[in-house]
């Protein structure tokens, strides 16, 4: 998110340069129109002032409000650090002492987007037998390096509230996987693992219905369940693949 602010900084820099150029051309304004040159000069400075003042509005428009273009711009600016997208996941109960095997709690589908000046995390959970449980949504988020931290509300009427941190992998390339941990009393000793979905020519379409998203989560679980004992022996801050 810090990188997105480079657009605002760039806009401010451009206006500042234009402001300096306008000031340097003061005499030309006067010679261009002896009667109105002073007013043209003052008008130009006022125009640049308002451009500088509202550069944040233009920056927000470019980053967030233009369909198609804004997501592309965010991906371009973020590069390998982009985490937006869809992440089928599994939530597991993990014994901290490793005296009992990990137990599958939920199948889930998490989506990361950008809205209101920050990353937004939302999704749904199902029980292992496919029964819908509840939605979840972040309230405030922070991304630093490959770690995403956020507060969330879960369930109708904000039934559960808590804090989560997610580590994204690999650290030296485009993020493909993540592992997270709940840091709250309602999800004691619970971790989750996810793999990012990619779309494009020759690849499956984006899951949009609950049934399709559940199927994506189930497919992800099927792909890792045989190795889950080994995976959960590592800390959630370590790559699991």
Question: Which tags fit this structure?
Answer:
about 240 residues; alpha+beta; about 35% helix
What does this protein look like?
This protein is α+β, with helices and mostly antiparallel strands. It is built from seven helices and eight strands. The chain has an eight-stranded antiparallel β-barrel with strand order 1-2-3-4-5-6-7-8. β6 (160-169) and β7 (177-182) form a beta hairpin. The longest helix has 20 residues, at 5-24. It is elongated, with a radius of gyration of 24 Å. The model has no long low-confidence stretch (mean pLDDT 81).
Q: Judging from the principal axes of the Cα atoms, what is the shape?
A: elongated
State mean pLDDT (0 to 100 scale).
Answer: 81
Q: Got a strand count?
A: 8
Element pattern in H and E: HHHHHEEEEEEEEHH
Radius of gyration: 24 Å
Distance between the termini: 27 Å
- How much β-strand is present in the residues? 25-35%
Note the quaternary state here. single chain
Going across the biggest sheet, name each strand in turn: 1-2-3-4-5-6-7-8
Strand pairing plus helix content: what structural class?
A: alpha+beta
Biggest sheet, open or closed, and with what strands and sense? 8 strands, antiparallel, barrel
The parts where pLDDT drops under 50 for at least 5 residues are none
Helix content: 25-40%
User: Can you count the helices?
Assistant: 7
